[in-house]
């Protein structure tokens, strides 16, 4: 095909769309079903209605091929588990009794049966349910859901493309089932799984699918030759089938790297490639393999994971280059639009001019359609869109919200010394020992205490104007008094104020820093029916005034024991927000770090001697490709040090991490130069303590002894046992005693008993030293 005919054939498509509906109708229907207030039929009808609405919106916007099967009542990886019949033994009965209840049993567990484990979908904030496989797993095809959704879309007169998690990614995301040797490699099941995919493909073909999309994002990660061999075998096998739709293998979230030539030489009919951010390296790689002759290329040129408008001219240039490299070039977002909110037009609180810089799923769809039109019919057909886009980009680039010269100048002026404490750790440790006078095995918590209904009601009352700020603040002070007096009575050594004033550990700070925007309806699925509204980091960041000092100082005024100040670290402030795309992430992190540094210094000046800067997201933001990690860890650890290095040697800096295993980033943890780190460790029996020891980690550490993910109250004996295990790795002079994480999701009575037991455990073990 010539470049010109390839251009003329260009179409617009998307890989997936937000599931929840304008008012999160899906969440309400599912949670209503769980509570018995909504019937299964009503839930199914709600879901079908939302699918229909999405397809109609896509078709009306000019999307020619709509995705089907991307919709889910909980999670698309869980749906794939159902599709391939890999139901764990313990859920079999529930699934056999009722498919819908069985699905939710796998997702959430029941009274008697544990759910599937949940983990992050690559480096997004979406979480999927991990397939559990073993040598005895028998797969069987269940294409009912895929066929039904395809049929629904066909009935609307649309041209649907079913979207499936590909077989290689499915196996690479799986883990050995409980009871199976942990060394078991699920990928060894590929030959058993492929016939199931063949059957599903045949069913979809029979039901009228012309194309099917097989998502293989696992191939953008570093892969072994064996993994790549499996990918090649999979797509040679599926490609060789005669009774099948055309196959589009989808990659996203990064560059394909070594997997690109592998997929290019298989007999599949098309590939999707990401051309945004670092994935733009796909362009050169594609040219290097001689393009995709005879194949369809779907080009992800619109960022599917962030909320900024596209630079249409730049995308058109990329698309123009791609025209010579494939038989047909279509236009798409870089990944499913699941990861962005639905529609900016629902936002009423953001200034109209600023709103024009933002593109959610609906706006991104329009951009994709515009680009496809420009490609197919010439840029003269989209001149109005191009000039509006140019004006919006210019308004963003030159807005005082985007650029604050004072912030720029301050960042420029940062020196190495700013990121270094005035004394090395051993000298600081001695100063802190003298200053704080803590016992061996000091006890503390991670920050939050249970967020009671009264607190949530108080916040709602304040928003609704039922109470005024003074009334609200009095409720917060009451809670702080209560939390402080409990900790004193329980005998905890380093107290916290309990974070009652915080709705969320990122949002609370985002609301007080300049440079951040909040959305009212910008919901994004985190997992199941949980949706979050990430703030938008839109411009240069600064701190107009103290953010936490009054609450921490108030708590300190109530006690002679040290009260720990509590802040969210720069990396976490970025990781759980939509970040700006017009400067390197490291620059943004540095701005946030400097704003936090002001807060740290103010806390110290107001008498706070222990300050914790939480970085639970440090590990989860690690780039997918190992080659990109050193650069990331470099700016990430620098930002932490910049935030914390301004204090005196006797002021103790803590950090906290959770939600991950940390064995592979111990060096980075060391590079933070924090005096104390608390880490999640109870469920892994202090594994992280051994990892720190193996690395020779020289500082103080509190591997968690209390698993806060369940209401269970651990006994003092049990926690003492964990402490003794911890002592095998970390000497008593450097071991802290604390829970795994904050207590905000826990109930009050269980928390109090658990903390009393925790103090008892510390006392028992101190007596043995
Ligand atoms: N300080 C926070 C809290 O206790 C930390 C939360 C977290 O690590 N996710 O809630
Ligand atoms: Zn935590």
UniProtKB/TrEMBL annotation:
Cofactor descriptive note: Binds 2 Zn(2+) ions per subunit. Binds 1 zinc ion per subunit.
Residues annotated for Zn(2+) 1 binding in this entry: 656, 671, 680, 741
Cofactor(s) named in the record: Zn(2+)
Name of the top EC class for this enzyme: transferase
GO biological process, one term: methionine biosynthetic process
Catalytic activity: 5-methyltetrahydropteroyltri-L-glutamate + L-homocysteine = tetrahydropteroyltri-L-glutamate + L-methionine
Keywords (A to Z) from UniProt: Amino-acid biosynthesis, Metal-binding, Methionine biosynthesis, Methyltransferase, Repeat, Transferase, Zinc
Protein residues bound to L-methionine: 446-448, 499, 614
Gene3D superfamilies hit by this protein: 3.20.20.210
Positions contributing to Zn(2+) 2 binding: 658
Domain of life of the source: Bacteria
Binding site for 5-methyltetrahydropteroyltri-L-glutamate: 24-27, 120, 125, 576, 620
Catalytic site positions: 709
Domain Cobalamin-independent methionine synthase MetE C-terminal/archaeal: 441-763
Binding site for Zn(2+): 656, 658, 680, 741
InterPro entries per the UniProt record, alphabetical: Cbl-indep_Met_Synth_N, Cobalamin-indep_Met_synthase, Met_Synth_C/arc, UROD/MetE-like_sf
EC assignment: 2.1.1.14
Pathway listed: Amino-acid biosynthesis; L-methionine biosynthesis via de novo pathway; L-methionine from L-homocysteine (MetE route): step 1/1
PANTHER family: 5-METHYLTETRAHYDROPTEROYLTRIGLUTAMATE--HOMOCYSTEINE METHYLTRANSFERASE
NCBIfam families: met_syn_B12ind (TIGR01371), PRK05222.1 (NF003556)
Name assigned to this protein: 5-methyltetrahydropteroyltriglutamate--homocysteine methyltransferase
Species the sequence originates in: Streptomyces tabacisoli
Lineage: Bacteria, Bacillati, Actinomycetota, Actinomycetes, Kitasatosporales
């Amino acid at each position: 095909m010539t470049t010109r005919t390839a251009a003329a054939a260009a179409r617009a498509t998307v890989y997936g769309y937000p599931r929840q509906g304008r008012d999160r109708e899906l969440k309400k229907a599912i949670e209503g079903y769980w509570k018995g207030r909504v019937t299964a039929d009503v839930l199914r009808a709600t879901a079908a209605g939302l699918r229909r609405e999405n397809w109609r919106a896509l078709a009306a916007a000019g999307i020619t091929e709509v995705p089907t099967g991307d919709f889910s009542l909980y999670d698309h990886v869980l749906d794939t588990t159902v599709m391939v019949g890999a139901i764990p033994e313990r859920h079999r009965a529930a699934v056999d009794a009722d498919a819908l209840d069985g699905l939710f049993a796998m997702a959430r567990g029941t009274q008697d049966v544990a759910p599937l484990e949940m983990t992050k979908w690559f480096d997004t904030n979406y979480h999927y349910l991990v397939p559990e496989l073993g040598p005895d797993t028998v797969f069987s095809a269940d294409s009912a859901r895929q066929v039904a959704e395809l049929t629904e879309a066909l009935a609307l007169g649309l041209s649907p493309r079913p979207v499936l998690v590909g077989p290689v990614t499915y196996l690479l995301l799986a883990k050995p089932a409980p009871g199976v040797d942990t060394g078991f490699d699920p990928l060894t099941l590929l030959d058993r799984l492929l016939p199931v995919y063949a059957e599903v493909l045949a069913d979809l073909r029979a039901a009228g699918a012309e194309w099917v999309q097989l998502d293989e994002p696992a191939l953008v990660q570093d892969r072994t030759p064996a993994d790549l061999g499996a990918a090649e075998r999979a797509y040679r096998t599926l490609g060789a089938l005669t009774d099948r739709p055309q196959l589009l293998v989808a990659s996203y979230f990064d560059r394909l790297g070594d997997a690109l030539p592998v997929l290019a030489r298989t007999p599949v009919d098309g590939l999707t490639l990401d051309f945004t951010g670092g994935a733009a390296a796909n362009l050169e790689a594609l040219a290097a393999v001689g393009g995709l002759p005879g194949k369809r290329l779907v080009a992800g040129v619109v960022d599917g994971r962030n909320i900024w408008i596209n630079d249409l001219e730049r995308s058109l240039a990329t698309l123009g280059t791609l025209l010579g490299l494939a038989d047909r070039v279509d236009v798409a977002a870089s990944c499913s639009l699941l990861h962005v909110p639905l529609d900016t037009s629902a936002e009423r609180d953001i200034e109209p001019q600023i709103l024009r810089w933002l593109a959610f799923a609906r706006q991104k769809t329009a951009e994709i359609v515009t680009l496809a039109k420009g490609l197919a019919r010439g840029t003269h057909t989209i001149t109005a869109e191009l000039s509006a886009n140019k004006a919006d980009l210019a308004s963003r680039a030159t807005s005082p919200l985007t650029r604050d010269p004072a912030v720029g100048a301050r960042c420029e002026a940062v020196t190495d010394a700013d990121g270094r404490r005035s004394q090395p750790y051993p000298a600081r440790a001695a100063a802190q020992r003298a200053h704080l006078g803590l016992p061996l095995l000091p006890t503390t918590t991670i920050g939050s205490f249970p967020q009671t209904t009264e607190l949530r009601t108080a916040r709602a009352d304040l928003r609704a104007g039922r109470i005024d700020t003074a009334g609200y603040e009095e409720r917060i002070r009451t809670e702080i008094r209560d939390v402080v007096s409990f900790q004193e009575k329980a005998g905890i050594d380093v107290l916290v104020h309990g974070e009652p004033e915080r709705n969320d550990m990122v949002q609370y700070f985002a609301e007080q820093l300049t440079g951040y925007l909040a959305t009212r309806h910008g919901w994004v699925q985190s997992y199941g029916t949980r949706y979050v509204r990430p703030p938008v980091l839109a411009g240069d960041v600064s701190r107009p005034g103290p953010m936490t000092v009054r609450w921490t100082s108030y708590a300190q005024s109530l006690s002679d024991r040290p009260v720990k100040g509590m802040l969210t670290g720069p990396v976490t402030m970025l990781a759980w927000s939509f970040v700006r795309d017009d400067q390197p992430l490291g620059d943004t992190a540095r701005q946030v770090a400097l704003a936090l540094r002001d807060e740290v210094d103010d806390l110290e000046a107001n008498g706070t001697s222990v300050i914790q800067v939480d970085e639970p997201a440090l590990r989860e933001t690690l780039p997918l490709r190992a080659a990109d990690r050193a650069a990331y860890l470099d700016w990430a650890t620098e930002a932490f040090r910049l935030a914390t290095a301004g204090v005196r040697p006797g002021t103790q800096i803590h950090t906290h991490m959770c939600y991950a295993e940390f064995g592979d980033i111990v060096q980075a943890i060391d590079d933070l130069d924090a005096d104390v780190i608390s880490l999640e460790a109870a469920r892994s029996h202090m594994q992280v303590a051994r990892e720190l020891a193996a690395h020779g980690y020289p500082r103080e550490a509190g591997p968690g002894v209390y698993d806060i993910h369940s209401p269970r109250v651990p006994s003092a004996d049990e926690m003492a046992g964990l402490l003794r295990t911890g002592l095998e790795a970390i000497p008593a002079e450097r071991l802290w005693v604390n829970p795994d994480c904050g207590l905000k999701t826990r109930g009050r009575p269980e928390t109090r008993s658990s903390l009393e037991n925790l103090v008892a455990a510390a006392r028992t073990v101190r007596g043995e030293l």
